[in-house]
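Agenda item 2: guanosine-5'-triphosphate complex prediction
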Amino acid sequence: MSFFGKLKTRLFKSSAKLDQGLDALVSEGEGESDAPQVPPPADPAPDTPPREAPERETPPSPDAPVKVPQPAEPDLPTPGAPQPGPDTSPPVDPQPERPSEMPGPAPMGLPPIGDSVPEGAPPEAPESRGPGLFGRLMGRGAGEGPVARRVLDDDMLEELEELLIASDMGVETALRVSANIAEGRYGRRVSAREIKELLAQEIARIMEPVARPLPLYPSKPQVVLVVGVNGSGKTTTIGKLASQFREAGKSVVVAAGDTFRAAAVEQLQVWGERAGVPVMTAPEGSDPASLAFEALTKAQAEGADLLMIDTAGRLQNRADLMEELAKIVRVIRKKDPDAPHNTLLVLDATTGQNALNQVETFRKLADVSGLVMTKLDGTAKGGVLVALADRFGLPIHAIGVGEQIDDLAPFDPEEFAAALTGLDP
Ligand SMILES: Nc1nc2c(ncn2[C@@H]2O[C@H](COP(=O)(O)OP(=O)(O)OP(=O)(O)O)[C@@H](O)[C@H]2O)c(=O)[nH]1
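Presented output:
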């Protein structure tokens, strides 16, 4: 199955929810339908929606400050209160600028992913996807019968905002996206399909600038430090990436830097075998920084292209974690002053809005250069990726939609937008 096919099928929970919600949104307030298609009035509304003094407090202005609900605490030991808001604190450990020091990155991204479906083959449609709850109730399948339309007014906009917030897009982003959809269309009759297409366009527009594959630099070995809370999918992601780089002809060394859990080391060894790459380990409880140093020595001696270092996600407290990551960085810089060349933060999509807190926290602990979002399969919270892109603008290098070795692919904004809204790309 193509990766888009998997993404669409496995994003079922979120896309079905949005898909059905948008169908219901239009059907609920539907007064008229297209039989025949009635063109919109010549000029039904000025471009700026003449929304009367809204009872609700959210103007459609993109810049207007909005109340953002406080997400739950990240799954991290937090001795003090969380620090919401942009990260303005200086880096924990004085660290020289990362990629700018590097010789220009080669125009390479993640190696291509094995894809058994020939190009151009239609993506597999999810079995349970249909014309939507209301559509089905009213017997409106795709292409059958009249197309339901609803006037895009304050009520509909409010419902749209709620639907987007429920998909974990975050309040701020949901308001901005809804306002953009309404612009120039306020007072017009729109179909669910039109709303889905507009929504997909908005999502793709937000995601486009952050869809950047992991940059590969000419210097060898390129050191990739992988951070994230326990269980976010670090080990699995390292295994998948190592396998893909290996298939692309790169030599890879992996260091099992989570020396606190024997199970984590074993799991990485299993992935190493699957991917055909050596995994360097150290006895349980030993210093991860010295393992990282040894691994870099080995990777340099062998002329490896990449060294990927796994790290522990949870220590006694945040200060410990910060100190441990800083120590790894300090030590590997004795061998290569530019290392690590990438610091990947792995996030679990099922944590929803909590992922936003994790980004803020880890940006204080490490010089995060890019994100990988795992477990987009089977979650109703895929919209959080849009919120992350909108809020932080950090590159999203790859997304994971399963536990198999080829269930990780470079992030494609249009495919993601189509899958999330239940459209075909
Ligand atoms: N469904 C699904 N499961 C995933 C995905 N990525 C990882 N997992 C699973 O999530 C669980 C945790 O993944 P790990 O790779 O062990 O996470 P970790 O961050 O290394 O966690 P620790 O080893 O505890 O530090 C495992 O059962 C993985 O199989 C994904 O994209 N989709």
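Discussion summary: Residues 228, 230-236, 258, 264, 267, 313, 374-375, 377-378, 400-403, 407 surround guanosine-5'-triphosphate (CB under 6 Å).
Owner for follow-up: CH.
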